[in-house]
Amino acid sequence: MAKKMREITISYILPILLLLLAVETHAHNVTRLLASHPSFSSFNHFLTQTHLAGEINRRTTITVLAVDNAAMSALTSKGYPISTIKNILSLHVLLDYFGAKKIHQIRDGSALAATLFQATGAAPGTTGFVNITDLRGGKVGLGPDGGDLSSFFVKSVEEVPYNISIIQISKVLPSETASAPTPAPAEMNLTGIMSAHGCKVFAETLLANPGASKTYQESVEGGMTVFCPGDDAMKGFLPKYKNLTAPKKEAFLDFLAVPTYYSMAMLKSNNGPMNTLATDGADKFELTVQNDGEKVTLRTRINTVQIVDTIIDEQPLAIYATDKVLLPKELFKASAVEAPAPAPAPEDGDVADSPKPAKGKGKGKKKKAAPSPDDSFGDSDSPAEGPDGDADDATADEASAVRIVGGATAGLVVSVFCLFASSSLL
Ligand SMILES: *[C@@H]1O[C@H](CO)[C@@H](O)[C@H](O)[C@H]1NC(C)=O
Ligand SMILES: *[C@@H]1O[C@H](CO)[C@@H](O)[C@H](O)[C@H]1NC(C)=O
Ligand SMILES: *[C@@H]1O[C@H](CO)[C@@H](O)[C@H](O)[C@H]1NC(C)=O
Ligand SMILES: *[C@@H]1O[C@H](CO)[C@@H](O)[C@H](O)[C@H]1NC(C)=O
Ligand SMILES: *[C@@H]1O[C@H](CO)[C@@H](O)[C@H](O)[C@H]1NC(C)=O
């Protein structure tokens, strides 16, 4: 009987799921689109290298100005670091749709298009805009705003109206701003960047801690991602922070940064635990990245926070703002480990949140009437407990189709919801 049910599930649900997945994969993939054009292989390679491909795929109504391998080698022969190449190539991604037709029918013969370079905040003034002008004789010239229109439209390479258009231009757009040396990572003013974008309280807290400041500054060069709590969240947390001993304060600050550069697109495809700057031998100080549709959340056994803003994303540094303060279990687990507070403080409301990240795990949880939510979570994570095991697995994000079929309706509903959520948000 159960087997019959399963067969029915497979034969009816699976095609529906695959259909939904097919809809999902309709989102364009610039790497794949360019792969069938070998004369753009170098350009394509650098879109991947600079992680711009992920940013392009995340957006719709976009135009990529591609150059062929010969034009690309003129750029790569200059020995620019990858961060500069990223800036230059991001000037070649227009945040509007220009097919071959539209580019020849520009109103008043000239237009300015914003680019990904402008959007990253790295371009001063309007230097991140591209001027597209219909020149005499049907020629279309392109150049950075205020610069020479010395690159020309060659041909349309791929068009998926109105999601993505890839057009060939004759040479790399000459831009002094984009090719200016990017500030050496070691010289980036981390706290200045954070202060200017809603993480002032965290930046000040970091500045006041020489140990953590040094660790942050030394880590930028090799790639770093910071998850800074927004000002309101950090302000509310300060009394708790001030209660920590000096080594714990430092560990807490170090915990909010990861020694690897992750663009938003990379975070979205990197579910799982990550080491932090506070990770040191026995002190794990891990955090877990978990996607839910377009949302990226971070969790520990204590709480879950959501990324709400990108403050900077310039290889090798990314800084994201979070809606709440992510709490490491190493510092905020049991009240015994914390300060010898006899009565639970009102802030312990955070702790009560903890089972939330584990969607659909309620059943397994009830078995343990553990008083401390920290202990019942996480450790009960791995071993599947009885028949609920399958259902637990269904919440895994990737390749879930097969598992969903073997498991819970709840999982199916969640996944279907995610698919809808992500396609409607794209
Ligand atoms: C354009 O993108 C949207 C959102 O990703 C997608 O639903 C739609 O199918 C795409 N259109 C084409 C023609 O690929
Ligand atoms: C895009 O296509 C490339 C090449 O086919 C593939 O390696 C990559 O995983 C794809 N990316 C996404 C997000 O599907
Ligand atoms: C584009 O550049 C040309 C030549 O410098 C200039 O005449 C034109 O006004 C510019 N177009 C826009 C929209 O700024
Ligand atoms: C970094 O930025 C902060 C805040 O804007 C400023 O007070 C500080 O002087 C800057 N530090 C350096 C080394 O430029
Ligand atoms: C800080 O510690 C004191 C004494 O250990 C305790 O009474 C107080 O509740 C703690 N405050 C916070 C915000 O944890």
TrEMBL record:
<feature type="domain" description="FAS1">
    <location>
        <begin position="27"/>
        <end position="173"/>
    </location>
</feature>
<comment type="similarity">
    <text>Belongs to the fasciclin-like AGP family.</text>
</comment>
<feature type="domain" description="FAS1">
    <location>
        <begin position="186"/>
        <end position="326"/>
    </location>
</feature>
<dbReference type="InterPro" id="IPR036378">
    <property type="entry name" value="FAS1_dom_sf"/>
</dbReference>
<protein>
    <recommendedName>
        <fullName>FAS1 domain-containing protein</fullName>
    </recommendedName>
</protein>
<feature type="compositionally biased region" description="Basic residues">
    <location>
        <begin position="358"/>
        <end position="369"/>
    </location>
</feature>
<keyword id="KW-0472">Membrane</keyword>
<dbReference type="Pfam" id="PF02469">
    <property type="entry name" value="Fasciclin"/>
</dbReference>
<dbReference type="InterPro" id="IPR000782">
    <property type="entry name" value="FAS1_domain"/>
</dbReference>
<keyword id="KW-0449">Lipoprotein</keyword>
<keyword id="KW-0654">Proteoglycan</keyword>
<feature type="compositionally biased region" description="Acidic residues">
    <location>
        <begin position="387"/>
        <end position="396"/>
    </location>
</feature>
<feature type="region of interest" description="Disordered">
    <location>
        <begin position="340"/>
        <end position="396"/>
    </location>
</feature>
<keyword id="KW-0325">Glycoprotein</keyword>
<feature type="compositionally biased region" description="Low complexity">
    <location>
        <begin position="370"/>
        <end position="386"/>
    </location>
</feature>
<dbReference type="InterPro" id="IPR033254">
    <property type="entry name" value="Plant_FLA"/>
</dbReference>
<keyword id="KW-1003">Cell membrane</keyword>
<feature type="signal peptide">
    <location>
        <begin position="1"/>
        <end position="27"/>
    </location>
</feature>
<keyword id="KW-0336">GPI-anchor</keyword>
<keyword id="KW-0732">Signal</keyword>
